[in-house]
Design a protein that fits this description.
Two copies of one chain form a homodimer.
Chain A (H helix, E strand, L loop, with lengths): L4 E6 L7 H15 L3 E6 H4 L22 H10 L5 H12 L2 E7 L7 H10 L21 E8 L15 H11 L6 E7 L10
Parallel strand pairs in A: 1-2, 1-3, 3-4, 4-5
């Protein structure tokens, strides 16, 4: 990994949390290995999750009826996206590996991280039509989901109350297919640490 | 449905959108049928999606290390949640049916709606431990996902590029198991309307 660039997109409110410790450990370990590590600390940044008109600077392409996806795509092409989106896109563009560090909220990422995905990974930047999945624009980068759960590991099996964790991670996995191969790191906030790298 | 109460949680920025038309049609039709319909228009409300310290009024239960789930649960018990959360919980509590109306963003709800789920459906209100899934506190209510997609219907089949839509809706479905039976309404923004009620 020496010489590689890593972006950690991190969503936890508390610097003393287990998620923070995982993020800090990743920064330390990857730095020791010679990587250049950048962290987007979403709560600390007050990152905006809402996809709104404010994301497009200047005039709209079709002001008569606001279509976020269309306007974000057009704004990407003319470099008219909001500065916070451009800054995150720059970090993603430079990264060889993107790590998403988060606690599981309702079987998915917390809203603040969902907002990062909704706003940063816009058409033109992450994909186009055609130009998605195997031909997506982030192809060649690595992505890693590192998440904590409140429940015990057995809850997240096929026979468990919550079902196989691969089911509820599937939407995240398929969304990130541009960055392959998908790779998961699952850790529960206990002394027992479970790794599912695949 | 006469006499029933319906809450529509609606996430689209544009009053002239197809999502808005679906919402408006639902309001009109359900009202004609004798239902009392309430709409939470999340973008118009500027709904806050971020789960932060601001959601708890007054002192924290464990100020030494902020745990959102724990603090929200404690705040729910002592009626110390932020007023916007309490208002939404009141609407959910009164509703017999909750309709989620949204465009699909990255295989899930837009961040503003994910934030509604993260913040409103807190422990103590929607569930407890024990007291989840079949014994969740919203049991007996109906829930309906009404969503639009950018892609054509064939993309969301098992053999399609995006996979069976039931895969990516599964996290939403399992999350909402307290409100059963799950029921989906899938509409694409074209003249061809596809219904998948099951």
């Amino acid at each position: 990994m020496a010489g590689k660039k890593v972006l950690i997109v991190y969503a936890h409110q508390e610097p003393k949390s287990f998620n923070a410790a995982l993020k800090d450990t990743a920064v330390q370990e990857l730095s020791v290995q010679g990587c250049a590590v950048t962290v987007s600390d979403l709560y600390a940044m007050g990152f905006e999750p809402r996809a709104t008109r404010s994301d497009i600077t200047g005039a709209l392409s079709s002001p008569e009826s606001f279509n976020y996806g269309v306007e974000a795509h057009e704004a990407f092409k003319r470099r008219a996206l909001a500065s916070d989106i451009l800054a995150e896109q720059r970090k993603v563009q430079e990264a060889d590996l993107v790590i998403f560090q988060f606690p599981l909220y309702w079987f998915s990422v917390p809203a603040i991280m969902k907002g990062w995905m909704d706003r940063v990974l816009c058409q033109g930047f992450a994909f186009d039509i055609p130009g998605f999945y195997d031909s997506g624009f982030l192809k060649g980068k690595l992505a890693l989901l590192s998440l904590t759960t409140g429940g015990v590991a057995s809850m997240y099996t096929k026979a468990g109350d919550s079902g196989d964790f691969r089911y509820f991670l599937w939407p995240l996995q398929v969304s990130r297919q541009e960055a392959s191969p998908p790779c998961f790191l699952h850790l529960r906030v206990t002394r027992t640490v479970n790794l599912f790298p695949f």
